[in-house]
Amino acid sequence: MYVFFLNQVVPAEVVEAILRSCKSGNFDSANKEVNNFIAEGYPASQILTQLFEAILEDDISDEQKARIAKKLGEADKCLVDGADEYLQLLDVVSTTMQAFCNMPEGFAYGS
């Protein structure tokens, strides 16, 4: 027997937990939330939609919203093309974290 979660709404607490971890600036916390999300079996495309809605309502700058929305769109395209859900969500949360913390795009440690 197969169970499909098509168009299943992700609980608001899950979306809020992911956003909180992104705002904290702690990558380990964000990674943990992504792992929890994947373990629950929700569709990644649905969390992208709900994150987009939450970001639009958040009190952040237009530049931050644009950076996050761009990454959400890229991740959605990659998922449609068959990319790994975990890796795409991790990419989205890391970009979201960088935007929230006002880190420059393409930020890297070291020289």
UniProtKB/TrEMBL annotation:
It comes from Stylosanthes scabra. Coiled coil: none annotated. This is Subunit of heteropentameric Replication factor C (RF-C). The gene is RFC2_7. Residues 11-94 form the Replication factor C C-terminal domain. Transmembrane segments: none annotated. InterPro entries: DNA_pol3_clamp-load_cplx_C (IPR008921), Rep_factorC_C (IPR013748).
